[in-house]
């Protein structure tokens, strides 16, 4: 097991190096440092001196990968890639193009993102699994048919529609919750109620339909027929046997998504005015702050790799037959 984990961590580190290099190349293939300076300062009609000053202040006046004018190791270290992208491998995010510490921003914005992501994740998972179990328990009945129709309708609607409709109904018409905003303490419930509700509703359709398919597949296996032949009630067969044996594919999606909760929701945080990492990324894209975008892409990749490793390790808990050599 230890060798397997170390091997996966090594593979993940190599992937992070590739992601870091590819992201750097893509960003600087689209925008040169001169283009970035003009975008940051404000337009094409900017003097060359102002562009050069902006580049010098942020270290963009150096070569990308190899500095021919330097000597020794400085030919590699005195470059944009080494000073702006290599520190990401030790999770040193540096400064944004606007001069603010990215690590400080991530630390302060992680709390609001988790305040939205954790309740949405837990309640969404419970609602989806429970709804799928109800449909399977009443399979081949009108309840199952109309439940599947409802799932298809829910997954066919854009998540943006749920946000707009929820703000219109609950904030404007009923005035139960505010349109947007964020606050600490007990006021957090008032501001988070609508975003969490919208997130749960948008998840129920696709996830409940997927879980229903998993449960129905398990219902046709031999161990289920054996349990029924022993006289076990249908609800016991469903909850004690089917649900447990369907945990592997459920864990694949849920455990691997746990680390990504830190990244927040791009759309929800922007529309509901939540100062989390999702809105931070959107603001950086709108401001053309490529240092922040590169940092968030790298952080998202790292968290995704961690999630995949956790999902593999969780298999041994869900299914004792699974062993990693």
Explained architecture:
- There is one protein chain.
- The chain is mainly α and 325 residues long.
- The protein has helices spanning 2-30, 33-41, 48-58, 74-77, 80-84, 102-137, 142-156, 159-173, 187-219, 222-229, 234-245, 247-257, 266-271, 277-286, 290-318.
- Helix content is 72%, strand content 0%.
Short description:
By secondary structure, the protein is mainly α. The protein is 72% helix and 0% strand. It has 15 helices and no strands.
The oligomerization state is single chain
How far from one another are the termini?
6 Å
Q: What's the overall average pLDDT, rounded?
A: 84
Q: What class do helices, strands and sheet pairing give?
A: mainly alpha
């Amino acid at each position: 097991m230890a060798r397997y984990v170390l091997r996966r961590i090594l593979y993940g580190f190599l992937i992070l190096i590739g992601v870091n290099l590819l992201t750097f190349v893509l960003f600087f293939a689209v925008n040169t440092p001169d283009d970035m300076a003009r975008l940051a300062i404000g337009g094409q009609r900017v003097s060359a001196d102002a562009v050069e000053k902006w580049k010098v202040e942020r270290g963009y006046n150096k070569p990308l990968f190899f500095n021919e004018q330097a000597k020794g190791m400085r030919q590699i270290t005195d470059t944009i890639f080494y000073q702006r992208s290599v520190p990401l491998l030790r999770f040193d995010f540096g400064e944004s193009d606007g001069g603010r510490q990215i690590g400080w921003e991530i630390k302060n914005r992680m709390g609001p993102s988790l305040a939205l992501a954790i309740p949405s994740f837990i309640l969404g998972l419970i609602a989806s699994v429970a709804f799928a179990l109800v449909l399977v328990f009443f399979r081949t009945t009108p309840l199952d048919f109309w439940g599947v129709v409802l799932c298809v309708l829910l997954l066919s609607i854009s998540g943006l529609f749920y946000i707009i409709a929820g703000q219109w109904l609950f904030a404007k018409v009923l005035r139960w919750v505010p349109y947007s905003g964020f606050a600490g303490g007990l006021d957090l419930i008032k501001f988070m109620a609508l975003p969490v509700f919208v997130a749960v509703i948008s998840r129920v359709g696709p996830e409940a339909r997927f879980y229903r398919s998993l449960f129905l597949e398990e219902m046709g296996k031999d161990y289920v027929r054996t349990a029924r032949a022993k006289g076990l009630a249908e609800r016991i067969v469903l909850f004690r046997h089917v649900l447990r044996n369907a945990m592997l594919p459920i864990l694949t999606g849920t455990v691997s998504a746990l680390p990504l909760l830190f990244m927040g929701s791009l759309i929800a945080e922007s529309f509901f005015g939540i100062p989390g990492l999702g809105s931070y990324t959107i603001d950086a894209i709108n401001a053309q702050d490529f240092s922040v975008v590169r940092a968030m892409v790298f952080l998202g990749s790292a968290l995704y790799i961690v999630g995949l490793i956790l999902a593999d390790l969780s298999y041994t808990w869900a299914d004792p037959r699974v062993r990693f050599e």
